[in-house]
Every structure is written in structure tokens, then in C-alpha cells.
Amino acid sequence: MNFNETTLQDAYLIELDTVEDERGFFARAWCEEKFASQGIVLPFVQTNISFSKCKGTLRGLHLQKPPHLEAKLLRCISGAVYECIIDLRQSSPTYMKTYGAELSAKNRKMLYVPGGFANGYLTLADGSEVLYQVTETYHPESEFGVRYDDPAFGIVWPITPIVVTDKDREWPDFDELSLAGMA
Length: 183
What we know:
The chain is built from two helices and 13 strands, in the order E-E-E-E-H-E-E-E-E-E-E-E-E-E-H. By secondary structure, it is mainly beta. It has a single domain, classed as Sandwich (Jelly Rolls). Strands 1-2-10-7-12-5 form a six-stranded antiparallel sheet, with no helix packed on it. The mean pLDDT is 93.
């Protein structure tokens, strides 16, 4: 695995090292030792799969607030998505900054998202499926979201979102006070 620093502190775009032969390829998608060498120690507690039928489906931007912060490791296993993250850790030098990358079945890249980041993605192909591991189970009382078109962040999506849930469309304008307790 190759860990590439992003423009956001503690977030990595990860490229898999593949061993290829006439059958196809083999790669490690998770290696505790490799992640620990980057200072990332993760107790994954859940693996989720998200499937979107249509190109232009937007999911997010979501996170859980303390004490249920969750780190995530995401990989698109079918189709393609534009994954966007926002650093919402108030003490971070990259606070309120965004980063985006294309994750696809073809490029096999993964994105490591630290706790305290909002993340969401926009599908770039029909039939896109994202597999992600998380370090915390879902706690509805800790759920928080950022609207995909909130002017506080100025995210430029590569295509226009077409399918957006009411919940994701109706998050209020960002308010720093709602992040009380975020490190």
C-alpha cells in the first residue's frame, strides 16, 4: 500500500500494491502493520456497503460527533464516485478545508478519513458501490451533517447532483457552534 498525503491533515489517499499474473491480481486492502506505520491504529467495528443505482446520486456529507467520532476507510468496488471530505476538527490547521478524489473500481484507490471529518460522495456512474470500514457503530443521537452545497465550503462537484435525499438537501447552513466538543 502506498499512503499519499492529501491537503487535509491526517487524511490519506491510498493506492494498492497489486501483484498481477495471468489470473488477474492480488492486493492487500487492509494491513494493521502498514496503517500503524503511518500512526493510524484503528479498531474497525463495522463494514458497510452502499449501492447507488443512478449516476448523479449524492450521499452525505455526514459524520458523528463526540463521543462517537468515527474514522472510515472507503473504497469504490463497482462504478466510480467522487469522494469529498471536510476537516471539522476545530483545533486542526486544515479546519473547514475540503478535499476530493475519484475512487473507482478501475483505479482501486482508497481514502482514509479520520474521525472529525464529514464525508460524502457523488456517483459518477450507474451501479456504483462503496465498501467502507468504520471505527464506531451508528449512533443516531450523534449524527451531524453538512449540506453538499453549503456556501461555507464551496465544494465544486464534478457533475450536478441529481438524486439527493431530503435529509441531505435540508441540513442547515453550517454553524461552528453545533460542533461543540470537536477536537
